[in-house]
Amino acid sequence: MFTSLSFTAASGQRSDRSVTEDDRPLTAVLRECDQQHVWHAFTQMQEYEPLLIERGEGCWLIDTEGHRYLDGSASMWCNVHGHRHPRLDTALISQLGKVAHTTNLGLSNPTTVEFARRLVEIMPVGLTRIFFSDDGSTAIEAALKIAFQFWLQADRDRPQRRTKFVAIGDAYHGDTLGAIGIGGVDRFTALFMPLTFDAIRVPSPGGPDHATSAATPSCAEALAHLERIFVEHAGDIAAMVMEPLMQAAGGILVHPVGYLCGVRELTKKYDILLILDEVATGFGRTGSMFACQQEQVSPDILCLAKGLTAGYLPMAATVTTDRVWDAFLGAHAERRTFFHGHTYGGNPLAAAVGLESLNLFRDERLLDQLPAKIDRLREHADRIARLNHVGDVRQCGLTAGFDLVVDKASRTPFPWQEQRGMQACRAARRHGALLRPLGDVVVIMPPLSITLDELDRLCAATERGIQDATTRAADLSSAPSPAP
Questions:
Q1: Is 163 among the domain residues?
Q2: Which domain holds residue 417?
Q3: Distance between CA atoms of 405 and 58, rounded to whole angstroms?
Q4: What is the band of 187 on the pLDDT scale with cuts at 50, 70, 90?
Q5: Which of 177, 283, 340, 354 could be 196's S-S partner, Cβ–Cβ 3.0 to 4.6 Å?
């Protein structure tokens, strides 16, 4: 049905008008097939409007009609060094010349072993054992099961059945059932709660609890509340689970300085494992390799994905300590094995590109380049914050979130049914940027390799998109109702 696409070698642009056998443009046919056959994540398919991304070049994405967009969401927060980086492409092709996949169940391969060794070198102190899986949700799922099984096996004479987990309000940790159990964003989790457990939830110090409309607690208040929970449930809690410094999918909620360090002190005091979810915050996103390093915190379990392979291939890692690891060692008959695994865990293609990504961090001194970019983003965020319909603005590293509101003074939100965040992101497309909202929070989270000029363009497109989507909407929302 489809004819092949052809491009000019120099420009990469389409050299002829590709058509199908029924003389329709190929893009039109692909859009129709996309709507008929592909079920997109977190997308109401009845309202879906296809946009077909065909190629990538650095921080740019190009659709099937040749339109170029800055990748303002790092392709769902995972791209680090840009698209089609020649060294990452070469590493992937080189590994294909050896083997594409071998199981990690009882076997290994040199590339994955070397990747694990290199990861341990950059880990927070004490994290030495790596369990590979597929994505952020599976990294969290593994962490929850490891924590539960650890307490059953840590003391051979007195096994402890600890079944409770503590998590932060408005937290998002993935979509699998265990991850939903510790998740706190109702629009993602409420429907499926009958299928899983409910974590003990503590208020977020990074923003209001949208479920209860409670005021944001201070750092001291949040830690005092957490300690009361630990005392009340002493001996029942397997682990505390949290994102360090910033709750990403919860709405870019930024924690106050000292909160993470305080949580670590309390988990040690009450002998509770600390699981840090750095799926979104890891690999330079907050300005350091891992967010927890900014407060000199090392958890018992660290969960990684997204930037782990620079956005090239699915891979996740659940990293833990010798203390946790030792609880799983024993003779086969003791059944202390961690009975959990994934078909593509430790995939050598993903390991090869992840390994080369670490080389790029080192050789291109990427972390050293971030302060200037973070400062430039802050300048733009301060300007965008002055728009009439932007409420709170939050930034952590090379990430910023902008709340869209009807009234700036009262922070009155738009009716959620109006999807103002999505409308702003669609408007930003017309100005050359691809963004992904979190409800009515417009998020900027580009590849770390973005240049200052590209960052300027991205923020300008974001600003214009917000203006396009909110000005008329606010006028309509504030207009008096027509007389009966």
A1: yes
A2: 51-81+366-478
A3: 33
A4: confident
A5: 177
